[in-house]
């Protein structure tokens, strides 16, 4: 290519980099703002989007997720947009590094999820089951989270109703949570065994497998965007001296 063509290509890629990351930055700011709004004034959010959220607690959980994602997108968008605009090799390298770290973390999480599903269940059982025994029925927020999860996913405990054996809740009420028997009345061991309500881990895993195609497509699309973003940032980084 002639010097003019190379310059035009560089300028085009730079502009695309700026616009793409500006969109990411604005999206991150929007998500962060909505997350803060939901956290501070969840009730007004429920009044508008009540059909999308069953309880205030769910909205609070969504708020934390929106804030985290929004903050990450803000950082990525700022580094990419400002770095391309100012033609800063330092910011472009920081952008590349942040996206690379996120990409590696996503790949590692996917591999672990596929290879060590059984190990993940064992680790979760060792960590979550003691918390169910100690905090369910004691801490309102923890109890509400599990009640919402068990009701909507139609599950009981992490593995099954036996997770509540020797728990504070069982000692106080002499019964299991009603979701374990799929009934509004007292839930004893006989009814729970007959109901055979699966644990939440298995139910969520089945939902993920059912929607594996959609989840895989979304993950592949995100990975492709990340690879493209890294390639463009590295192109700008390497061609700044040749500009």
Task: Describe this structure as you would to a colleague.
The chain has 243 residues and is mostly helical. The protein folds into two domains: 1-86; 106-242, Tetraspanin (Cd81 Antigen, Extracellular Domain, Chain: A, Orthogonal Bundle), CATH 1.10.1450.10. It is built from ten helices and no strands. Helix 1 packs antiparallel against helix 3, helix 3 packs antiparallel against helix 4 (89-115) and helix 4 (89-115) runs antiparallel to helix 10. It is elongated. The model is unreliable at 50-60 (pLDDT under 50).
CATH class of the largest domain: Mainly Alpha
Question: Uncertain regions: pLDDT < 50 for 5+ in a row?
Answer: 50-60
Second CATH tier, the architecture of the largest domain: Orthogonal Bundle
CATH homologous superfamily (4th level) name of the largest domain: Tetraspanin
* Helical content class: over 70%
Largest sheet: none
* Order of helical and strand elements: HHHHHHHHHH
Structural class of the helix and strand makeup?
mainly alpha
Span between N and C termini? 14 Å
Average pLDDT reading = 79
Spatial extent as radius of gyration: 24 Å
Tell me the domain tally: 2
Overall strand count: 0
At CATH level 3, the topology of the largest domain is Cd81 Antigen, Extracellular Domain, Chain: A
State the shape. Answer: elongated
Strand content: under 5%
Q: How many helices in DSSP terms?
A: 10
Membrane topology: Multi-pass membrane protein
Organism: Pycnonotus jocosus
Subunit structure: Interacts with SLC19A2. Interacts with NTRK1/TRKA.
Protein name: Tetraspanin
